[in-house]
Each structure stands twice: as C-alpha cells, then as structure tokens.
Amino acid sequence: MTEPREVLDWATFGDAARELARTVADDGFRPDLVLCIARGGLLVGGALSYPLKVKSTHLMNVEYYTGIGERLPEPVVLPPEPDGVDFAGQKVLIADDVADTGATLEVVRAFCADHAAEVRCAVLYEKPHATVSCEYVWRRTDRWITFPWSAGLEG
Q1: Which residues contact 115 (CB under 8 A, 6 or more apart)?
Q2: Which of 114, 117, 123, 148 has CB atoms 3.0–4.6 Å from 10's, for a disulfide?
C-alpha cells in the first residue's frame, strides 16, 4: 500500500495561487520583485506576480531533491547565481511550491538577506517539520504532494 498523497490539480492550483496572492496583498506586503525557486517555484512565482502586479521576477536554481524522499546532503545553488546587486534595497517575495525540510528556503533566504531590504516567503504547502516558517502559506500537510506539473512523472 502506498502512503496517501496530497494531490493538486491545475484548477485547484489556480485557486491556490489567487488565495495566496490575496493573503500577501491583505497583509500589506508590496514586493518589488518575486524570486522563484526552480523548479517548483517557477509556476508559483509567475502565478503570484500577476495579481500582485510585480513585473520583476527572478530565478534561483537550487538542487536538493533527487527523487521521492531522496535528496542531497544539503541544497546546492546551481549557476547562474543571481547577482546580489539586483536585490539591493528591494522587498523580495520568495516563491516556492513547498517548504518540506525548509533547507532550500533557508539557503535562498540567507542569500537575499545579505542584499535585500526585506524578505518574505510564500509557498503553496508547508510541512510541519520544516525548519522555516513561511509568512504566506496556502495549506499545511505532512503528506507527499503530487503537483500538476509533475503528475505522472514521479517514480
């Protein structure tokens, strides 16, 4: 028997992204740029940037998971690494699909903290054992999540 999963389909993703953006806006946070963590945060960041009216989006490639429940010893920032000067004095919203262990978000948040004026995180899902607490979370779960962009591709 396989463990139960949290399954997110495309229609629910759209609803989730709008709700998450509304939560950010209702909090009064007005980011200058959205930093998408590749790969899972690419679609999340794009979906947040429209309702938040943020045209400046950036990308940070971080490898950590290599398969279901399989990961490297620690997250690795892959090239090209963003230029910190682009973040100087900016309010940054980091976007990702899930805060699982929190390790990836810790690496990205630390990078931004060295450059940006303010940094906050928005994720679709946050796991209870994550080492970071994101400011904006759509749902909390302890299940493995199947996202619409990876459905059918997982091992």
Answers
A1: 84, 85, 87, 88, 90
A2: 148
pLDDT digits (tens, 9 = 90+) for 71-96: 767 888 889 889 999 999 999 999 99
The two three-digit tokens of residue 66, written as one number: 């290599």
Domains and CATH numbers, the chain: 5-79+87-146 (3.40.50.2020)
Give the residue among 35, 151, 136 at the shortest CA–CA distance from 95: 35
Q: Tokens in use for 86?
A: 């682009």
